[in-house]
Amino acid sequence: MPRSGRPLQISSEAKAWVTELACRKPLDFGYPHELWTIQLLAEHVRKHANKYGFPSLARAGKSVIHGILAEQSLRPWKINYYLERRDPDFDVKKAHVLMTYKEASLQQERIKNGEPVEKKVIVSVDEKPGCQVLKNTADDRLPV
C-alpha cells in the first residue's frame, strides 16, 4: 500500500538514467562485479545522482530503484543465459558425445560383471594443437 505523505517526485529523465545504468555492466563503472544487485545499483545511484543532475535520487533506497526497474520489466540481477549458441549443430554434437560416454560406461559395467564385451578403443582429446584461438568471444568475462 502507498504510504501517506508527499509522493516522491522522480522525473522521467532520472528514471531513464537509472534504467540506462541497469543496462550496463558494473565492470564499466569500476566495480568488480559481473551483475548489478539492487543494493549495489542503489548505492551507485545515491553516490552519483547529484553529479548527474538528479537530486531526487540522492536518497533513493533499494525499493525506489526496484520500482523504477519494475516499470521497465528489468531485472539485471537475473540472466537466463550468457553466451549465444553459435553452432547450429550443437545439439547433434552434444548427443553424440553423451552417447559415447554412455557406451563407455555400459562397457565398463559389463566388464565388471564378467560379461563378454566387444573390444573398443575410446580416445578423448581435450586439446587440438592445430587449432588456434583467433579472438576471445566474451571480452567482458575476465578469467578467474
Task: Give an account of the 3D structure.
There is one protein chain. The protein has 144 residues and is mostly helical. The chain is built from four helices and no strands. Helix 2 crosses helix 3. The protein is elongated. The two termini are 44 Å apart. The model has no long low-confidence stretch (mean pLDDT 83).
- Cα end-to-end separation: 44 Å
> How much helicity do the residues have?
25-40%
Q: Tally of extended strands?
A: 0
Number of helices: 4
| Shape by Cα distribution | elongated
User: What's the SSE pattern?
Assistant: HHHH
Strand content: under 5%
Let me know the largest β-sheet. none
Going by helix content, strand content and strand pairing, the class is mainly alpha
Spans of at least 5 consecutive residues whose pLDDT stays below 50 are: none
Mean pLDDT: 83
Radius of gyration: 26 Å
Keywords, please?
single chain; mainly alpha; 4 helices; 0% strand; elongated
Compact overview of the structure:
The protein is mainly alpha-helical and 144 residues long.
What is the fold's blueprint, element by element?
Blueprint: H1 12-23, H2 38-48, H3 62-71, H4 90-113
